[in-house]
Amino acid sequence: MLSKSILSYQGPLTFSTIDWLLSEFKMVAHDHDISFKTYKKMISVLIETLENISKYSVHVHCNGEPSTGFCPSLRISRSESEIEMETRNPVKKGDEQNIRSRIDKINQQDSEELKVLYKTTMTDGLFSSSGGAGLGFIEIAKTTGSKLEYNFKNLSKEYSIYTFRVSMNI
Hints:
It is a single chain. By secondary structure, the protein is of the alpha+beta class. It has a single domain, classed as Histidine kinase-like ATPase, C-terminal domain (Heat Shock Protein 90). It contains five helices and five strands. Strand 4 (149-154) and strand 5 (159-169) form a beta hairpin. Helix 1 packs antiparallel against helix 2. The radius of gyration is 16 Å and the shape is globular.
């Protein structure tokens, strides 16, 4: 079934932009008859994903200045039976394998194994050099009940475009 884009954005991503996007989603969720339960889940996924981009993405100058050639983007689409979120942002090629292995590990888990992985990750107390414990992808998978989709597309010698996609039934 064809899906309809209900919210899209491309440009610099700051905490004030995230706030604005969350407000925009609240309005479009109402306009597109998205249930409160689905809205709450999607807000959780949006916050986690957009904050990850803000914290971990390669920061480029998006307003016509020389850059790696790409600004972060977000698209939310809806069909009769599901809602999908897709984000794109530049990442260093050296970070690709870490992202792949984390998502692949999560995608191999069923819902009970995800709960155990979440608890284990919480109690390990291991944090990355950027301060994250690695709970975000786990939380998104638990919230949506779906596999996490991703790919990388070559952008330059040093950078790739990372596309992240997740959907859930509505």
